[in-house]
Amino acid sequence: MRHLMLSTAFAVCAAPVWAERIETPAPVSAVTLYPWGASITRTVEVAAPADAHEIVIPGLGDSVDPASLRIAGSGAVIGAISVQQQRATPAETVKSPEFLAAEAEVRRLETELGERKATIAAIRARGQAAEDSIAFLLTLAESDGFEMGDLVSTMATVSDQMLQGPPGSPSPPKPRAASAEQGVEDDEKALELARQMRDSLRASDPGAQALVIAVETGEQPAVLDITSFADGAGWQPVYDLRLDRQAGSLTLDRGFLISQLTNEDWQDVRLTLSTARPSEQSAPTDLHPWFPRVEEPHAEPQATLRGAVVGAAMMDGMFAGGAVAEAAQPRMMGATVVYDYPAPVSIRSGVDALRLKLDSRDLQPEIRAEAVPSRDSSAYLVAETVNSLDEVILPGLATLYADGVLVGRSDLSLTPAGEKLELGFGPIDGLVAEYEIPEKAEGDRGIISRSSTSSQKSVLRIRNLTTEEWPLRVIGQVPVSTQDDLTINWSASPRPTAENPEGQRGLLHWDSNLAAGTDQEIELDIDMRWPDGKVLIGETN
């Protein structure tokens, strides 16, 4: 359907058949990129006598959605609009001066390469002729009746023939041919680059789309802004996080990663990046009436309650499916964050993945080692900070550096201004974490215990084998009862510095400084009791 004619009547009807036909390119002048998709704007200037005209714009990429086309302008009244396969437009393709120059350069290099290859072929032909002459003379010298004086004369001729080259050439044919061949590879590379340049400047592709616009111009030149939406483009935030322990600093370098597959190169366009998502769901999902029901015990049960609800709703007909210059400057458009990039941007279709710099911000980190002995055998370097920017940190991929060394990659989650951000910068060699359960009473360790009590003692140990003191946080866990029949008591030595941090029930924190060459041990006792005849499920985590 995208190649069918669009017919949109505005102030005038379609141009009459005798209207002057003007074919002109419409390069992309501005692009608004979304996380998925792009709004592409082309600008066309038409200087023509006041009359009805038909403007033909060839070379639209196949990804242009005809339904999304919008045209606005000054100096002209816009009439019918159609999107056609370009081969349906009879006018000749416009070739720009740059394209004509690139085409001429290709022809020049093709001629130069052909002449070089012809020269090499001629040199080799002369060399082969010389070798054939030598073979003939040697055969003649070996024949019967050949006189000694003739042999001396023949050998002299052979010697002269072996040294003979092309006319005017002081060197033998083979070395001369090898020397000439050395330039062939360079000429072929230059020709290939010239062809690529020509193809990138080609005004249109015979299989692409063309836009035909009926306009009525006035006395002043007409300027048309043509906007369309394309799926084959998008952007995502990318980050570099650089932690410097000695300086106690954390730097957040923000950027954008841009790619496009619109079958059209963008050259020096004005770029805007938006967090809006026009390709995604734009309204909340509808909820429909819920009709649970009860049945006799012998009736066949439904697979799930959700299955019954969905099935009933469907029967009722109610279910519906559902290159970097300056930093970019952010601004708000309603609930959307928009970044205007200050410099023109060029990106080729299907070739370039362009990274652009947004800015670099300094954050104030709290740096520590963090260990979870029940899960990990090493402590990890952690930086806890707050989003002190005046805007949200968008979700994206972050590359992590600690003291100038690449330590890993991580996904940043959406972090509003003022919210906490915690980042891990890899394991710390020399901070060893250990977890032991020296004794356990009344029932074996496992998922289910059938006695009415369960007691467990565990030891969390951190060994500092490094040569420096570390601020350390040890994280432990105790079970949490959600039933009156299950009583849980626990004790720890030393006592934790924080219980249930940030509402995380059952988690414990021990904060301290661990000197070089020392150990820290934490003993944790847990006692669980429940009525006889009942079973404890999920004893360990």
Question: Could you explain how this protein is built, in words?
Answer:
The protein is α+β, with helices and mostly antiparallel strands. Among the domains are: 98-200; 286-321, no CATH class; 364-541, no CATH class. 18% of the residues lie in helices and 41% in strands. The protein has helices at residues 97-141, 148-162, 173-181, 184-200, 305-315; strands at residues 20-23, 28-33, 38-46, 52-60, 70-74, 76-85, 209-217, 222-230, 233-244, 249-260, 266-274, 329-333, 336-340, 345-347, 353-363, 366-371, 378-386, 396-402, 405-412, 420-441, 448-449, 453-464, 470-477, 487-493, 498-499, 507-514, 519-529, 536-537. The chain has a nine-stranded mixed β-sheet with strand order 24-27-22-20-17-16-23-26-25, with no helix packed on it. Strands 2, 3, 5, 8, 11, 12, 13 and 14 form an eight-stranded mixed β-sheet that branches. Strand 9 and strand 10 (249-260) form a beta hairpin. The longest helix has 45 residues, at 97-141. The chain is extended, with a radius of gyration of 39 Å.
Q: Tell me the strand order in the biggest sheet.
A: 24-27-22-20-17-16-23-26-25
Specify the helix fraction band: 10-25%
Coarse morphology = extended
**Biggest sheet layout:** 9 strands, mixed
Q: How large, in whole angstroms, is the Cα Rg?
A: 39 Å
Strand share of the residues?
Answer: 35-45%
Low-confidence stretches: 1-18, 165-170, 203-207, 299-325, 441-448
Report the count of strand segments.
28
Assembly status = single chain
Provide a count of the helices: 5
Task: Report mean pLDDT, rounded to a whole number.
Answer: 77
From the helix content, strand content and strand pairing, which structural class follows?
alpha+beta
Distance between the termini: 57 Å
